[in-house]
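tl;dr need the bound structure. longer version: we got a ligand (farnesyl diphosphate) that a collaborator sent over and nobodys looked at where it sits. i said id run it. heres the input, straight from their email, havent touched it
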Amino acid sequence: MSGTVSRGEKVVLDDPELGAAVGAGLTRVEDMLHSVVRNDLDFINETSLHLMAAGGKRFRPLFTLLAGQFGDPEHENVTKSAVVVELIHLATLYHDDVMDEATMRRGAVSANNRWTNSVAILTGDYLFSHASRLVADLGTDAARMIAETFGELVTGQLRETVGPVDGENPVNHYLSVIWQKTGSLIAIAGRFGGLFSGAPAEQVAALYEYGAVIGTAFQISDDIIDITSESADSGKTPGTDLREGVHTLPALYELAGDPKPRLAELLSGPITDEDQVQEALVMLRECEGMRQAKATLESYAERAANTLDALPDGSAKRALNALTRYVIDRTN
Ligand code: FPP
Ligand code: MG
């Protein structure tokens, strides 16, 4: 086995040639990421490179590069589109940490914690402006797709903030919100890789569908990790969703079933007391809702595999199957 290409957590590719090609592609992405945000003002360089330098999995660029394998993976626009998607992702992290009042991200202090909310928000805007500039080079269709995706993403974040409307099933609300806030951008990462490598249309469509499925699964696993992890592993502070009063899949399943009265009481609103956050985390880790959430996450493996039917067999398709396992198994 060789060709470990991701930073931090690993996605292992079984074909050394593909591993080397994708590794070289990720280096090009990294170089472009650094060069596009460069600014004459040291302070802006520092704030905008802060999260980029702190690490991150580069999951979205990796997916764009793998999707690019179904056409000409060396095309410059494959790299450029991977950078656009990663810049948008980075911009949302700066804003998300302000909204979540998060203190840690990628094992480093979050930008809002290191500087101020205003600096974090404006840095997110700055990164977004560069993503917009770059996507203009990719043509009006790509710019429209990004604009639509961005609208989706912000709508998801707003819907998460206000919660389900009257009569809306909370699990259905959650699943559609995570598609919007996370799945939509990961789906576009796959679509861009296929599109800009010149892959056939039905393969581009399959890469989009696959991205939608694993993107949604990615957020479910992220939310499970917010409950199960030690911060040293995730680089974030566990329990952030509980402090924000956001119920993710394990809590939603538990509340729809037969929760212990104490857990139901703790989950009735945002938890501000640190001992109570820990108490709720301990109960959530062991509850039936967590078992159900893990089973739902596992069910995405089959859905992801089905979306890959339209793609030709070979090392790139095997790599996408490895990506699926990575997304699902990272909660273990
Ligand atoms: C992560 O959720 C959040 C998102 C994937 C989307 C956030 C979108 C915005 C904040 C809108 C951004 C707007 C502009 C203009 C850039 P999470 O809190 O569950 O994930 P985490 O565990 O990584 O914090
Ligand atoms: Mg967050």
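gonna send this back to them w/ a short note. The radius of gyration is 20 Å.
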